Amino acid sequence: MKAINLTPRFWVAASLVIFTLVVGLIGPFVVGTDPDAVIGGLYDKPAGGLPMLLGTDNEGQSVMANLVYGTRTSLLVGLVAGLIASVIGLVLGLVAGYQGGWLDDVISGLTNVALAIPSIVLVILLGIALNDRSSLALAFIIGITSWPWMARAVRAQSTSIRSREHIDVARLSGASWFSILSRDVLPYLLSYVVMAFVLQVSGAILAEAALSLLGLGPSGTTSLGVMLYWALAWGSIRTGAWWAFLPPTVMLTLIAFSLLLLQSSLDEVFNPRLRRGKLAKRKTKGGQSLPAPASSQVPTPIGAAGIVESPVPASTGGTR
């Protein structure tokens, strides 16, 4: 089995993703302060000690504690919503692309209708309709409105795979459609599914932040978007309290950037054409000549008896 060549970009992206996970999962235990505990006054400046390292917010609560707990909430919403959207898009795309016929028409029509409606509008309307907006409820809303583009892409790839020879062999052997989808079609789509899941997580985290900025964030808990909402509502920018809005902004940017960088690096890992293209560019920059394409190399003609024949010059004609 050929080893996967992981690029430096992948390791940078993976390091950033691991850092954000550590902040969200281990950070609350390291800080050791309840995010709802009042430890100071309105927008106290950063001081010594881990809880006061980033000062206090509009309610006198630790910005550091809210940052680590908010990162955990945002990551939770992103992972759950990304998983829901990926599962729905994958299942619908596989079934539509493989089965075809009227089922494909129905699923494709539903997907087109869902794509025509801006998902942010649906998320806002559903968020307003909820009485208790918990983190999981918001994740569910974001997930069920983010699947259409993935379903369309999976459907297109499944349609091209179903006409391959190994699929015909599986049908003739009596395998069920579920077995064919899980064993013969899905493995060809795993690389795309992984990259699409990363994009779904990133989009869900940003969608939760957008909802929170509109006042529709999760209730009873804190998130990066909720921190930004209260920082803007209490005029932290106007008063110069940068520690109230800058840390959640930087963390949101870091999460989105690391996930997008991870998706791009995974594309290089899974796509051999991109790897060959980058290798060719490096050789060109290093002053090395690239090998001639296969089409420009004229093969030596071989006779019917297997004897190598010398090519006939263009100026002479063949024997009559």
TrEMBL record:
Q: Which residues form the ABC transmembrane type-1 domain?
A: 71-263
Instruction: Give the stretches traversing the membrane.
Output: 12-31, 75-98, 110-130, 136-154, 185-207, 213-234, 241-262
Q: Which GO terms describe its cellular component?
A: plasma membrane
Quote the subcellular location field of this record.
Cell membrane
Residue runs in coiled coils: none
Query: What is the membrane topology noted in the UniProt record heading this document?
Result: Multi-pass membrane protein
Q: Which UniProt keywords apply?
A: Cell membrane, Membrane, Transmembrane, Transmembrane helix, Transport
What molecular function terms (GO) are annotated for this protein?
A: dipeptide transmembrane transporter activity
Keyword Transmembrane helix belongs to the record: yes
The UniProt entry, under Gene3D superfamilies, shows: MetI-like
Give the protein family.
Belongs to the binding-protein-dependent transport system permease family.
State the name under which the record lists this protein: Peptide/nickel transport system permease protein
